[in-house]
Design brief:
294 residues, alpha+beta, 3-stranded antiparallel β-sheet, 10 helices, globular, single chain, 10-stranded mixed β-sheet
Length: 294
């Protein structure tokens, strides 16, 4: 099984994380004449991901749960419930509150996953992988909004299929009405991202403004991907939420979450900054410290 090297923040060591469906992804994103038509069909037409999502909701998919837990060493003691009606039911599992303790102060990571931070978004705006660039204006589809954050800070979180897939509020806030931007369904796996960083600006995504007294107006962007049946928001717009409370969840598949901060509103943890500068993802869990007020 192929793997990507990440830094496990809680264990304080480098480790190899397995890439789910690595061989298939390498074929699809290899750019061959055979793979390109298949990739186009899978990524551009939602019925492919929707169909696969339906399979994960079938009762027959339950037989995959046990082997999946064993293969990726998932701690079943964290689960709220022990029996699941389908693989997707397991995938969107809730965890006991004690499983994800919150940092004593500061903004916290909104989900489990692998993280990169950019204290200056301009360091990422134009950041190229194999000549293909990430663009803030393309991500938001709103020039005025992009202007507000162009000198701000950004967190990118990548969730693998074996991660806990519910996402939470990183600080006390009042969320606004979410806005859907329809798009493609490319994978956000490292195999795919290394080929095309612009995937973040091409995929289906949901934008929500989080109004915070401490951190200003923060944009939360959930990005869907191949085989993600849907992005489900479980919060109520206009209601006040405390940090760590649930915002929503991704259905089956890999996915990403992006936080955009206005200039001068947050100081990311130094260790996250240092590894990100070296293009090393930090692996951690929801509730761990992301940063503090500047």
């Amino acid at each position: 099984m192929q793997a990507v090297t990440v830094f496990n923040r809680s264990l304080k060591k480098m480790e190899n994380e397995p890439i789910y469906f690595a061989k298939i992804l390498s074929f699809l994103y290899g750019g061959s004449l055979f793979s390109l038509p298949i990739l186009f069909l899978i990524s551009r037409y939602s019925f492919c991901s929707a169909f696969f999502g339906l399979l994960q909701k079938s009762k027959f998919s339950r037989r995959k749960i046990g082997p999946f837990i064993a293969r990726f060493q998932i701690d079943a003691n964290e689960f709220v419930k022990k029996e699941f009606s389908s693989f997707n039911d397991f995938f969107i599992r809730e965890l006991k509150k004690t499983a994800r303790p919150l940092a004593k102060e500061g903004a916290v990571l909104p989900c489990d996953g692998k993280f990169l931070v950019f204290p200056q978004i301009k360091e990422a705006d134009g950041f190229a992988v194999k000549g293909k660039k990430f663009s803030l204006s393309s991500l938001l589809k709103d020039a005025k909004l992009a202007k507000r954050y162009e000198n701000g800070s950004m967190l990118i979180a990548r969730l693998a299929p074996f991660d806990y897939h519910r996402f939470h509020f990183p600080f006390d806030c009042i969320p606004g009405v979410p806005r859907l931007i329809n798009g493609a369904y490319f994978s956000v796996n490292p195999v795919a991202i290394r080929q095309n960083i612009a995937i973040f600006t091409q995929n289906k995504r949901i934008l929500t403004e989080l109004a915070s007294q401490e951190y200003g107006k923060v944009l939360c962007v959930e990005v869907g991907a191949t085989n993600v049946g849907s992005i489900i928001e479980t919060f109520t717009p206009g209601k006040k939420y405390l940090r760590g409370e649930e915002k929503g969840y991704f259905a089956f598949g890999g996915s990403s979450l992006i936080l955009l901060f206005e200039p001068g509103k947050i100081r990311f943890c130094d260790d996250l900054i240092e590894r990100s500068l070296n293009k090393i993802e930090s692996k951690d869990r929801m509730g761990a410290l992301l940063g503090r007020l500047t």
